[in-house]
Design brief:
By secondary structure, this protein is an alpha/beta fold. It has nine helices and seven strands. 36% of the residues lie in helices and 14% in strands.
């Protein structure tokens, strides 16, 4: 009997995936495996006069989990800095790719976020401007990880300055930051209470370190979609919607009336994210 029990225990233990396998974020099944197309950011295409750089900041909803399109966008007017390598490529989903740009090795669950739809609108409005996106978002991150001195904040500053160095001299500028974050700060009353001041401080430091005192900063509401946390998410949204009253030259787009998720009550679906992108663009163009 003891031998039988021991055998059953071994069977259960060794039939379970190891902890690293359980924690690994697998790539979505619809990941487009077409290799990323490299671009020379130091040269402007014919007809282009300057490069406008946008920072994409936040957590997993800025990173995006929406279903991928069958074919990647290939517009030389819209480019992206690769999240893992700092190399420049034609912009496409997933903007926050951390996998190898050719083999897709080490890809994770990044999908469609709002950044590309935003860039497409801006590009149409500015046909002589190349739009450069710098994906900076990391899933699950609280706002304290985005404070000055913390890795995510410092990496955003480093990559923004690197983009200016790599672009044609005198023809590049950082023109805006998009923010989609807050779910990770809605877990306790203490986190919610300090969120307004930390958001304000982050924007202040970002503008100072980039030497752009009036850098447009546009936030987006988070989803009030998960039962048991609607009240807490609404509290974060109240802060985000009040941002223009808290910090000059900011805005917040509101998707509460139409936001839908991918089935997990957290991450926005592709249609919602593309609408986010267009609303981000509409808000930015008012600046």
């Amino acid at each position: 009997m003891k031998h039988l029990l021991y055998s059953l225990i071994l069977l259960i233990v060794f039939s379970q995936p190891c902890l690293s396998q359980q924690r690994k974020k697998s790539a979505p099944p619809d990941l487009n495996m077409t290799p990323f197309v490299p671009v020379d950011v130091s040269q402007l295409p014919n007809g282009m006069e300057r490069v406008d750089i946008f920072l994409l900041m936040g957590q997993s909803n800025m990173k995006g989990r929406g279903v991928m399109p069958r074919e990647p966008l290939a517009d030389p007017q819209i480019i992206m800095m690769h999240r893992r390598t700092d190399g420049w490529f034609l912009a496409r989903h997933p903007l926050h790719s951390v996998g190898d740009p050719v083999t897709f090795e080490k890809s994770d669950n990044a999908g469609v976020g709002p950044g590309l739809a935003f860039a497409e609108v801006i590009a149409k409005k500015n046909p002589k401007t190349r739009i450069a996106l710098i994906p900076c978002a990391v899933g699950g991150t609280r706002i304290d990880k985005w404070q000055k001195g913390q890795r995510l904040y410092e990496e955003t500053i480093r990559r923004a300055k690197l983009a200016l160095e790599q672009a044609p001299r005198g023809r590049a500028r950082i023109v805006g930051a998009l923010w989609l974050q807050g779910e990770a700060d809605s877990n306790t009353p203490e986190q919610i209470s300090v969120y307004p001041e930390r958001l304000k401080q982050m924007i202040t430091d970002l503008r100072k370190d980039l030497a752009i005192p009036d850098l447009p900063f546009i936030a987006c509401t988070i989803g009030e979609l998960k039962e048991g946390s609607i009240k807490e998410r609404a509290a974060i949204n109240k802060v985000l919607l009040n941002l223009p009253n808290l910090v000059p030259n900011t805005a917040c787009i509101d998707s509460r009336s139409f936001a839908k998720d991918i089935g997990d009550s957290v991450h926005f679906d592709t249609a919602t994210q593309e609408r986010h992108g267009r609303l981000f663009a509409k808000a930015y163009l008012k600046f």
